């Protein structure tokens, strides 16, 4: 299984919207989660999608493709998700 980072989502995007976008491309997500602000509960504009290894390359092809969510049209950023340690700077890990 591979985990994908999906950025530039509409702030009105829900888990089901992201899941349906991947399914429309023929990719069956195992898990989808749009990240929300813990205080307000509003979407933060990014999320994660977990896919089978066989769907990984096709999922990366969605990078730059337009996703329409609640009337908002945006070019989706799709990359392989990094572990929490890889995403932090050296000074932040100390």
Summarize the structure.
The protein has helices at 15-24, 56-60, 84-87, and strands spanning 2-7, 31-36, 43-51, 66-69, 72-75, 77-80. With 94 residues, the chain is of the alpha+beta class.
Describe it for me?
- 20% of the residues lie in helices and 35% in strands.
- It is of the alpha+beta class and 94 residues long.
- It has one domain: 2-Layer Sandwich (Alpha-Beta Plaits).
- The protein has a 4-stranded antiparallel beta sheet. Strands 4-5 form a two-stranded antiparallel sheet.
- A hairpin with a 6-residue loop joins strand 2 and strand 3.
- It is globular and about 35 Å long.
- The mean pLDDT is 91.
Question: Would you spell out the secondary-structure blueprint of this structure?
Answer:
Blueprint (H helix, E strand, L loop, with lengths): L1 E6 L7 H10 L6 E6 L6 E9 L4 H5 L5 E4 L2 E4 L1 E4 L3 H4 L7
Antiparallel strand pairs: 1-3, 1-6, 2-3, 4-5
């Amino acid at each position: 299984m591979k985990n994908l980072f999906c950025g530039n989502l509409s702030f009105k995007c829900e888990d089901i919207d992201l899941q349906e976008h991947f399914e429309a491309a023929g990719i069956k997500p195992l898990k989808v989660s749009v990240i929300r602000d813990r205080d307000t509960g509003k979407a933060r504009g990014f999320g994660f999608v977990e896919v089978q290894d066989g769907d990984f390359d096709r999922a990366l092809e969605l990078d730059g493709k337009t996703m329409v969510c609640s009337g908002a049209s945006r070019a989706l950023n799709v990359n392989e998700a990094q572990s929490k340690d890889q995403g932090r700077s050296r000074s932040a890990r100390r």
